[in-house]
Amino acid sequence: MGVKVYGATMSTCTARVLLCLEEMGAEYELVPIDFSTGEHKQPAHLARNPFGQVPAFEDGALILYESRAIARYILRKYKSSGGDLLKEGSLEESAMVDLWLEVESQQFNPAIGPIFYQIFIFPRFGNVPDQAVIDTNLEKLCKVLDVYEARLSKTKYLAGDFFSLADLSHVPLLHYFMATPHASVVNSRPHVKAWWEGVSSRPACKKVTAAMPASA
Amino acid sequence: MCSEREREREGVMGVKVYGPPTFTSAARVIAVLEEMGADYEVVPIDFAAGEHKHPAHLARNPFGQVPAFEDGDLMLFESRAIARYVARKHKSSGPDLLREGNLQESAMVDLWLEVESQQYNPIISSIVYECLISPIYGGVPDRKLIDANVEKLGKLLDLYEDRLSKTKFLAGDFFSLADLNHMPYSQYFMATPHASLFESRPHVKAWWEDLSSRPAVRKTTAGMPMAG
């Protein structure tokens, strides 16, 4: 009996959870939630995720939502067979993992998220991307990436010289972003570029992002 | 401030929190330090003088924000990461706020920590900013934005009301960092005209009264004078 992920392969938050499962070599079943029929707002799904969002996650009697929380659970559960991406056994290392997880959550995501929505989501509803929103957030993102460039010139990965959830958590949105003309803001920063090339070429990342078509 | 001077006189080497204790993000860290009974010193950062953007502070927090945190050689920023570190470090001498020894309990703590971070914080910080902070600098509250967020907050608090009718605290029947991380913005929110959103929901109200009357929280909020 494996675990179940309720969501969609294209969804960035669902991908965050799938990446963790793939990194850990864990067995899982992806149960598709059909947004076009409003399935995410039906009682069955609201019972799993009261925000009507994806993903939701089921491990026996335990039902979880919020992809960043599910990610931690998966990495903790499968640590002995899959590897240690949280470093909870080390005070200093776990602090750095948590710090860069918060940077992803509080600095990176708010800047790159709106760009992703304008380019990939809004057109699906017949809207034209708002260039002003894109430009404002690109400027914010560049300032954030300057911090990343400085960090990655000192350490191989974000939390230190070890790969962690902090790196993995960036993959879904960056995967889509790198298919836009704005990829140059990553490619013009040599350490960020090298870090992205290393992270995105991991077998687990390649497998999950293969199901995330990035044509805008 | 008196307690910090006392500690200095005693020569106690604790950790340092850089930032004004009135800031919600600094208060988030101070609350955990108080809960864990840890020694600490608050080093004020003068925002009016732009100190948060000076090289000395940027070396601690490259985003030029507060708080920054120093424990010996370890420099941290991002209040929620610092809070986890403090809770983990002092776990054996204080309450277990993270439950990392239990897969199911830690999952619930993390879930409600993310609800605070991803769902609650954007809405409540905007209301607090528009109602309390922007006016200090001569800003006019954006009524449309406030109304939109008050409506969103109402729906979110219905969810909290439902949860807290089943469990005593957010992650379960145990107090955790998930409850504590809600404290700073909630404290200021209760000083806005919209406090009735809490008061009209009996389980949310009881949860808030419990949380806000904890000794560690009282000590922290004593340094947040703008709150009611």
UniProtKB/TrEMBL annotation, chain A:
Residues 90-216 form the GST C-terminal domain. Gene3D superfamilies: 1.20.1050.10, Glutaredoxin (3.40.30.10). It comes from the Eukaryota. InterPro entries: Glutathione-S-Trfase_C-like (IPR010987), Glutathione-S-Trfase_C_sf (IPR036282), Glutathione_S-Trfase (IPR040079), Glutathione_S-Trfase_N (IPR004045), GST_C (IPR004046), GST_Phi_C (IPR034347), Thioredoxin-like_sf (IPR036249). GO terms for biological process: glutathione metabolic process; response to herbicide. Residues 1-82 form the GST N-terminal domain. It catalyses: RX + glutathione = an S-substituted glutathione + a halide anion + H(+). Its EC number is 2.5.1.18. GO terms for molecular function: glutathione binding; glutathione transferase activity. Transmembrane segments: none annotated. The keyword Transferase applies. One of its GO terms (cellular component) is cytoplasm. It holds the Pfam family GST_N. Keywords: Transferase. PANTHER family: GLUTATHIONE S-TRANSFERASE GSTF1-RELATED, GLUTATHIONE S-TRANSFERASE RHO. Belongs to the GST superfamily. Phi family. This is glutathione transferase. The lineage of its organism: Eukaryota, Viridiplantae, Streptophyta, Embryophyta, Tracheophyta.
TrEMBL record, chain B:
CDD domains: GST_C_Phi (cd03187), GST_N_Phi (cd03053). SUPFAM superfamilies: GST C-terminal domain-like, Thioredoxin-like. Residues 13-94 form the GST N-terminal domain. InterPro entries: Glutathione-S-Trfase_C-like, Glutathione-S-Trfase_C_sf, Glutathione_S-Trfase, Glutathione_S-Trfase_N, GST_C, GST_Phi_C, Thioredoxin-like_sf. Keywords: Transferase. The keyword DNA-binding does not apply. Residues 102-228 form the GST C-terminal domain. It is an enzyme of class 2 (transferase). PROSITE patterns: GST_CTER (PS50405), GST_NTER (PS50404). It comes from the Eukaryota. Pfam families: GST_C, GST_N. One of its GO terms (cellular component) is cytoplasm. This is glutathione transferase. It comes from Phoenix dactylifera (Date palm).
